[in-house]
Amino acid sequence: MATKKTEPIPDESAQAVLTYEQARDELVSIVGRLESGDETLADSMALFTRGEELAKICQQYLIDAKQMVEQAQTVTD
User: Is residue 43 part of a domain?
Assistant: First the structure.
């Protein structure tokens, strides 16, 4: 019986500060792994948790960017 070799689940402490692009790319990778259905339940839960963390990071970047644009528009008005 062959054992399934899976990629390790990313450890959020490995990269304390992610750029928006890094967080987005990792999130896309996690979504693909979850959609494949090949992960164990435990791995799926860990991936889901990490995905939630990454989504929050991305959301905060987008909120910050929106505020910067709004501030720039206020200055030019």
Answer: yes
